[in-house]
Structures are given as structure tokens and as C-alpha cells.
Automatic annotation (TrEMBL):
Cofactor(s) recorded in Swiss-Prot or TrEMBL: FAD
SUPFAM superfamilies registered for this protein in UniProt: FAD/NAD(P)-binding domain
Protein name: FAD-dependent urate hydroxylase
Pfam families, per the entry: FAD_binding_3
Gene symbol of the encoding locus: hpxO
Uppermost EC category: oxidoreductase
Lineage summary: Bacteria, Pseudomonadati, Pseudomonadota, Gammaproteobacteria, Oceanospirillales
């Protein structure tokens, strides 16, 4: 049995690993000539780390994961700590740590774990054809690949999604712009073992420790869609958006490199239930594109892969396995998208009275409520 894997990102490589565990041959196709991830890093929560362990790639998390032992929220203007707590109780309860990692490092090591020479790059899918015997992928370079099934992990702007659904979906602008990148870890900005988030005015500034003594940082600002990006004024722009904010925020802006800082208008896609058509299945962002507000986008793709592998462990009948995958994933995936959307609206001031109430709650928070929410999300995954 041969599977065509469309996309060599986190979801595609996780799917390839899961299917290989079931003895299924996989051909992996990636649209770009060279993987250049969107976003500097990714927060892989405990459910994602469990998935990576299950897929035989836990060593990647060990190598790339930062020492995120604590969590804190601080007032953006004054810098005053609103809440600060250890994540150890959460880790003890769910049985695994969270791992913020370099996105480029993660994708590169997942490709290397598979075998970089076995991934075909510069293969952008154009259309899909399906028969009772199998599936064919037609690429824009004129080549064609044939397999028994197709797993489409071709991202939020998925080409294959249109084939599966029979229609195209519009992405929904979530209302804010995110700047992200990597800087040297600096205790004057935040503790080196802590996820620190500064909040205020519906805006957010956050740093997470990753490997090699670096911080992953991001800035969120509610803005209209379609504003022009200008790297030459990036620091001045951020200084304007965060005028009067605390010294650590200013130090972070001073430390960043505009040339390596990403600017992303955040979108998601309205959840839908159909992930499968015949021998073709959607996985990852192609099936459930989400905002990053609960840190579950990459984790959800990893969960997809684990469930896909489990489905083929139960049966080698392709259509039955894919239907089982869909039935076990669509509600969980929808729940994560909607949770992220709800958190997005609260965090980014869609209704400032609600956002201010959240700020007030943070000042009373001991960590228990936040960790309970994180635990609920984590244990809802396929590996508990």
C-alpha cells in the first residue's frame, strides 16, 4: 500500500511517520523548493509531545525544547506581576512537559528523521483524480504521482480541501497582527525558564524559552487587515504600538532583528466536519486551520497523525480507516478551533469590558484555573 503525502510540514511528516509504523509506504511531496517555516517557533504542549514520543520522534523534543518551567502574566504598562506559578503540577498530572521549540528546527529534524532525500520538493499540487483503484496527484510542473490513498497536509490554503469539500472556503481574519521571531534569552526581559506574557489594551507581548539560550517572542496588536508591511520601520512601529509599556517590552523591541522578524495577519477557517472523500483525507491546517491563541495548531496536526496511524492499525481497508480517522478527529479539531477563537477574542479586546474582566481575574489567579484549562485541552487528545 502506498500513500501520497502532500506537504512536508509538521502535519505531513507526522502523518508519514504514523503510516510508516503501520507498514505503509509513503511518498512525500512539498510545494516549496526549500522549507521556510511561517513563524519562528511553536509551543508544543504536552499532548503534542506525547504524540511525538508515540511517533518515534521524542528525541527531537528533547533536543529542541526550552526549559519552560513557570508561567506568568504581567501588566504591560507597569510590568507588575499579575500572576506567576510553576507548571510542575500540570506536568505531574498530564505526565509530560510542554516544549516551546524552533519551528524551523522542528520541521527540519522531522524531515531528516524521515530522510530528506526521500522528500520531493518543488512539487505543488494542482488537482486530484480518484478511481476505485487509487488516487493520482497532478503537480504544476506537469508530473503525476499515483498511490492507493492521499493524505493532504497542504496547509491553511489547501488545494486538496476544495476537492474533498466540493467548494472553496474563505479564511476568516481574526482581527490582529502578530510579529514573531527569536532573540538571545535575557533575564532583564523575563526569567529564562518562564513563559512570560505582558498584557494590556487588548495587546499582548510574550516570550518563551527555547533551546540554545534563546527566547521565542511575539507581539499581538489588533489592527485592520491589509496594512502595508515595512521592515524598515518595524521597530518604530512596535515602539508606537507599545508606547509607555514596561522596560522589558522596550528591551525586547530593541533586541529584535527586523530582517528575521515575521509579520503575520492571523486567520482561521470556519470549522467543518468532512475531512475525507473516498481515499483522500485532510490533515492539519487543511482540515482545521486555527489561530495560535491556545498553542494547539501544531499539536492538533500531530494528534491527527496519531489517530490516522491507529485507524490503519485497526484495519487495512483504506476507506474504512479514513472514515474512522474522520469520526475520531472532527469534533476534537472543531473544539480546539473554537476554543482558540474564543480565547483570541478575549485576549485581543473584541469586547474590552470582557478583556478587562480577564485582566482583573489574572490578578487573583493562583495558577489553578489556568492549569485546569490547559489540562482539559491536553487530556482530550488521543493519548490522554
Amino acid at each position: 500500500m502506498k500513500a501520497l503525502i502532500i506537504g512536508a510540514g509538521i502535519g505531513g511528516m507526522a502523518a508519514a511517520a504514523a503510516l510508516r509504523q503501520q507498514g505503509i509506504e509513503c511518498d512525500v511531496f512539498e510545494a516549496v523548493k526549500e522549507i521556510k517555516p511561517v513563524g519562528a517557533a511553536i509551543s508544543v504542549w504536552s499532548n503534542g509531545v506525547k504524540c511525538m514520543n508515540h511517533l518515534g520522534m521524542g528525541h527531537i523534543m528533547d533536543e529542541l525544547g526550552g526549559p519552560m518551567r513557570n508561567m506568568a502574566y504581567q501588566d504591560g504598562k507597569t510590568g507588575q506581576v499579575m500572576t506567576q506559578f510553576s507548571l510542575k503540577p500540570l506536568i505531574d498530572e498530564v505526565g509530560e512537559r510542554p516544549c516551546p521549540v524552533s519551528r524551523a528546527g522542528l520541521q527540519s529534524m522531522m524531515v531528516d528523521s524521515w530522510g530528506r532525500d526521500s522528500v520531493q520538493f518543488d512539487k505543488r499540487i494542482e488537482r486530484v483524480e480518484e478511481t476505485e483503484q487509487g488516487v493520482s496527484a497532478y503537480f504544476t510542473d506537469g508530473t503525476v504521482a499515483h498511490g492507493d490513498l492521499m493524505i493532504a497536509a497542504d496547509g491553511a490554503r489547501s488545494v486538496v480541501r476544495g476537492y474533498v469539500l466540493g467548494m472553496e472556503l474563505e479564511r476568516r481574519y481574526a482581527g490582529y497582527v502578530n510579529w514573531n521571531g527569536l532573540v538571545a534569552a535575557d533575564a532583564l526581559i523575563a526569567p529564562l525558564d518562564q513563559w512570560t506574557t505582558f498584557v494590556g489594551e487588548g495587546k499582548r507581548v510574550s516570550v518563551m524559552p527555547i533551546s540554545d539560550q534563546r527566547f521565542y517572542f511575539f507581539f499581538d496588536v489588533p489592527l485592520p487587515v491589509g496594512l502595508e508591511e515595512n521592515r524598515a520601520t518595524l521597530k518604530d512601529d512596535l515602539k508606537g504600538y507599545f508606547a509607555g509599556w514596561a522596560d522589558p517590552v522596550q528591551k525586547l523591541i530593541d533586541a529584535l532583528d527586523p530582517e528575521t522578524t515575521n509579520r503575520i495577519e492571523i486567520h482561521d477557517v470556519e470549522p467543518f466536519d468532512t475531512f475525507v472523500k473516498g481515499r483522500v483525507a485532510l490533515l492539519g491546517d487543511s482540515a482545521h486551520s486555527t489561530t495560535p491563541d491556545i498553542g494547539q495548531g501544531g499539536c492538533s496536526a500531530m494528534e491527527d497523525a496519531v489517530v490516522l496511524g491507529m485507524a490503519f492499525a485497526d484495519t487495512q481497508d483504506i476507506e474504512s480507516a479514513l472514515q474512522a480517522y474522520q469520526s475520531k478527529r472532527h469534533e476534537r479539531a472543531k473544539d480546539l478551533v473554537l476554543k482558540a477563537r474564543k480565547r483570541c477574542d478575549v485576549t485581543h479586546g473584541k469586547n474590552m469590558k470582557v478583556t478587562q474582566a480577564w485582566y482583573d481575574e489574572l490578578k487573583q489567579e493562583q495558577g489553578d484555573n489556568i492549569m485546569a484549562g490547559l489540562k482539559e485541552t491536553i487530556i482530550g487528545g488521543p493519548l490522554g
